[in-house]
Amino acid sequence: MLKKSIILFFIFVISAGDLFSESFAEELDIKGFFEAAWQGDAQEIKSYIESGIDINTQRHYKDEPEDDTALTLASKKGNKEIVELLLESGADPNVITGIAGDYNGGTALSYALEKGHKEIVELLLKSGANINLEECGDYALASASYSGDKEIVELLLKSGADINLQGDDALVAASSIGNKEIVELLLKSGANPNAIGMHGDIALIKASYRGNKEIVELLLKSGANINIIGGNRYEYNTTALIAASEIGNKEIVELLLKSGADVNVDSELGTALIEASRRGDKEIVELLLKSGADPNIKDSQGDTALTLAAQNGYKEIEEILLKSGADPKSISERGCKKREKKKVKIREEEGC
């Protein structure tokens, strides 16, 4: 009985060893296959394909953060010959690389777009790459627009990119970086100037935040809603006027007011006047007041423009606001309480 058990044990060890050897050899093959794709070695790639390797297998390659395929690696590196060879051999251009197991990375198309490899983008599109596939919270057209490559944006539009795909940030991206040519191209191609992007972004608000006056003008002429409220997961919901007041861009504030912006629209940040007073921007405060800004509107914390000016020591703005009808009680009701919390000595004559 003991002899039989020993024999069975050795058979198991030998079998396990064979399996381990096969697995190890397979991993070595995949490593070599990926190395050839990265280095652009066409002969090696052909050899691996002829040996029957899984052309769409995914593995982590060196310092790359994703679980790549040979096609995504070649697309990143710009190895056109390898991309062509892999596609002809049946590589799937729509495999999405994985990051940390549960987070989507990108496809060969998104990587080629990111690196500006136009010829590879064309090859992938001809081979069935899904132009409207969401990758890592983004779309091909948005990626190209953000990179500022007009030629690739044109190529994508000609290839059937859906310009108004829900969640596509193409117009937002171009407006954010201030690329007037791409903004014009997208608008002429039918982009909705009021479209809401993936994270709640809106082109007019983004352009105002970035101080891109020409883009703001262009969007307004194309029918952008001047009082639309939007934002994203990183920013408060706001309007274009509040955004321009927040960054202190007087030219854009003037443009928006002349174009009919509602000076008293209230958002998570408060009104434009509240933001300008918070920053201590005298010129914009005066401009907003002349345009009918109400100095007594409160923000979500209960602060008025006067409260914030007082808290930050902007005496000149305090005086301007008081002359324009700001309620002086707001200082004692909110300003003093906040300053007490900061342990600032309050003078009796301030009414605290």
Protein architecture, described:
This protein is mainly alpha-helical and 352 residues long. Helices cover 55% and strands 4% of the residues. It has helices at residues 2-39, 42-50, 70-77, 80-88, 108-115, 118-126, 140-147, 150-158, 170-177, 180-188, 203-210, 213-221, 240-247, 250-258, 272-279, 282-290, 305-311, 315-323, 329-341, and strands at residues 59-60, 67-68, 98-99, 103-104, 230-232, 235-238. The strands form three sheets. Strands 1-2 form a two-stranded antiparallel ribbon. Strand 3 and strand 4 form a beta hairpin. Helix 7 packs antiparallel against helix 8 (150-158), helix 7 (140-147) packs parallel to helix 9 (170-177) and helix 15 packs parallel to helix 17 (305-311). The protein starts with a helix and ends in an 11-residue tail after the last helix.
Terminal-residue CA separation: 97 Å
Mean of the pLDDT scores?
84
Beta content comes to: under 5%
Say how many strands there are.
Answer: 6
Structural class: mainly alpha
The profile of the biggest β sheet is:
2 strands, antiparallel
| Count of alpha and pi helical runs | 19
Give the SSE layout.
Elements: H1 2-39, H2 42-50, E1 59-60, E2 67-68, H3 70-77, H4 80-88, E3 98-99, E4 103-104, H5 108-115, H6 118-126, H7 140-147, H8 150-158, H9 170-177, H10 180-188, H11 203-210, H12 213-221, E5 230-232, E6 235-238, H13 240-247, H14 250-258, H15 272-279, H16 282-290, H17 305-311, H18 315-323, H19 329-341
Antiparallel strand pairs: 1-2, 3-4, 5-6
Helix pairs in contact: 1-2, 1-3, 3-4, 3-5, 4-6, 5-6, 5-7, 7-8, 7-9, 9-10, 9-11, 10-12, 11-12, 11-13, 13-14, 13-15, 14-16, 15-16, 15-17, 16-18, 17-18, 17-19
